[in-house]
Amino acid sequence: MFINKHGTRQDGQVNIFLQYYLIWLSAYVKSPLQTNRAASNLVYNVDAAGGYEAFMTAFRTLLGEHPNRKEVEGHHVLARQRARQPARWIHVKLVAGEETTTLAIRDDNVYLKGFMNKEGEWYELSGPTERSARMLPPEYASSLLGCCDVGYRSILGADVDEKVLDMLTHATVLETSFTIEAVRRLSGYRPHATDYVDPFVRLSLVRLIILVCESARIRKLYDTISSGLGSALTTWQVHYLWNWKRMSRLLLQSSQGNSSDIWPRRDPQLEPLGITSARETLRIVDLLLNCPLPPARVPDTDSLGDGLGRQRVELLAVRADFPRQLDAITVFDGKRGQVIYRRQQAADDHSSVLDYQEKGKRWNEPWEALEKWAYRIAYTKRGNMMLTGPYRSISADGCFAIQVDVAGSGVFFWEWDGYDKTYASQVNSAIPSYHTIDIGLGRAIHVAYAVMSNAVETDVQVELPLAGGTLVSGHVTARIEGFGTMGSVLFSATTAVPISTVDSTVPLARSVVALQYGKRLYIQVKLRADTNEGVKDFEDTVITLGGRSSVEQLRTRHGTVLVNIVPHPKLRATRGCV
Description:
7-stranded antiparallel β-sheet; 31% strand; alpha+beta; Ricin (A subunit), domain 1
């Protein structure tokens, strides 16, 4: 199939009908690139005048065709979200003269996950290579980009949303010439020896994401591109992109008769954009994300940062009955595959399969009896695994899944399904949730987790008043208000390891915590350093509030420990932004 509207203008309505028919026909042809799963294929010639409208119409219609087809006021609702593989991968082949690139797009959330160059080589958007798992089908044999995740912050190399906003409104010119250049760059892409992607390739990815994915979601953005104005994104349009999930959720809830509770109440994220009703929202969006059931519980703290967080899960701990047989543990959330444990990390004590070490406690007790799990049980030789991730907080907007690779036994998989009432009831629970993954032969993986509806991704850093390279041992734990003594272990070592030679920070095994907005976060530090002046102990707990950036000082007799806490809430829209 080939879209070229030069031909359309010459042949009139018959040729327009033929183009739509060919696009539709391609949706049911199995791709040679996927042998185990149906794929849908579209082709768009980016330098052919006028072909964009026909392509986008076919793309949106294709995304609306799935077994659970649903519409809200004529707007297609996407397929139910899945954690690992979507029901279909949509292949969009972009053509610019002799150059071509094919985009791999999920049909459940319209995320671009990878692209193929003209030589047939697939490249997958991912975080750090050693901490990422492939999500594209195995037959693609994709190479991980390593430093280009699916989020704009990662692709653009920006650490905060303010920088993303500035780059999107100044660097993403939507003229056809820039789109052609983007196709040419991806068509001829060759990886560097290291995990490095040059800025021009990054910008090309962003432009094509906006051209295809974002424009399918946001009608106002599509109208701008279709009109040929050639301008960059406006501040309002960027906020439309960031709030697409929120608008989808509100429209779906409104269509289910919950308008008295949800809509059109004043929304702190949407009202500054002039969005105060479902009717106005329907003029902005096109496709709607298939959002799961709303949480049955709404914490008292939600109003403090309403709309600044999103539904996320915090993995408090993972325990195995057979730790030495585990190869890897990976978490998928429909966007990323994050490796949170690998067996080869056991090179020294910090990489041991257990987080704390203490003799005594047996592990045959039921979960319910282990209220003080993080401290009592984590100290045993059969304690919870020393996790090294995630590097980004795990989304629970739809589903998340845990994959366990067991040496000699295969791969085992469990999916938390937000569309299931049993799992949905766990959102904002006052106590941690638990699940056991049966591996067979009396073996199991036990997971403790908390799902929060308005959680903020939070980075933690611990800096010691010591010279760089000093050896330290001990542990650092993050505990969320309301979950008792159970917490996420960020660092644990009985054999001393060196702190950073650059800034004297502790080499945390994991530094990202998902925290409900407005809830307190307790960081417990218990470290021992071997210095030229003898042994120095640093022990205390600092407290901070979810959603608030702070540098907490932990004063000890050996100096002040700095605990740097950096949340990443959504950037709030302001009135009058253009």
